[in-house]
Amino acid sequence: MAESPRRIDVHHHVTPPSYIAAASQGTYGNAPRMNWSLARSLEDMDKGGVATAIISLPHPVTIWPKPVDEQRRLARDWNEFVAKMQQDHPGRFGLFASLPLLDIEGSLREIEYALDVLKADGIGFYTSYENKHLGDPAFTPVLAELNRRKAVAYTHPVRPDCCTPLLPGITEAAVEYCTDTTRTIASLAFTGAATRFADIRWIFSHAGGTMPFLISRLIGVARAPEIAEHLPQGLLPVLRRFYYDLAQSAHIGAVFALMQIVEISQVLFGTDYPYGSAGTHLEGLAKCGLTAGQMVAIEHTNAARLLPRSA
Fold first, then answer.
1. Is residue 254 part of a domain?
2. Residue % of the chain over a pLDDT of 90
3. Boundaries of domain holding 100
4. N or C: which end of the chain has fewer CB within 10 A?
């Protein structure tokens, strides 16, 4: 049997102490994230043959409504926490740095610090902030700076403020997260932000959310004249330029749907740890009928090309 590739997990969460302190003041704490430990992350990585996990934060707890200075402090603290993990465990962790995105000036400062000083692999975003999705003009200065740097931009979904839990007993992660990923993809494409800032290399979680299943509707919307002017080559070339991880999507329905739209080169391995495990995702992918070459591309090659520090 051939040696397993160096797996790179692009969707792995940690919970720094400052996150726990912030979450204790709000309603976003839950057992997996609040019980996180470095040892547990490393244990899951080792069991699943993951050489490197690119770290992003889970749900942003109460960071958004806090005063500007507190938003900046928390973002810096979280980024430096992961940077220390990198120093202590060389080669095991990468960083998608967090931003206090509702504070544009603070975000631009943190981009400079994260990419130039901490040498982060990219910048992490949530799919929406106070009902603003990532194509909103409010975020143009941040996108322009990332475009100038040809940076990687990782996105993780949240439930937007507009959509409180609609069904009793159905968590926001079950439906709203994947829906919000589709909303922010549409926001970037239909506003023209993805075209104007084409050098940003976007990663979307969970196989693109509901985008693959709504593709015919989205293509129809893109034909409207006021939107088509932002998409001179149409919608599909934009979607095919993006990257998509398979966290919580390692099953044949999601994988098959996504691969009807994008090439295998755009698909990345992700686990959503601590909400998922590397082993479970590998078991799911093994049932998807992928070739050995496709598995190597998903598990290692694609991420190594996109994130060379993790290779």
1. yes
2. 76
3. 7-310
4. N
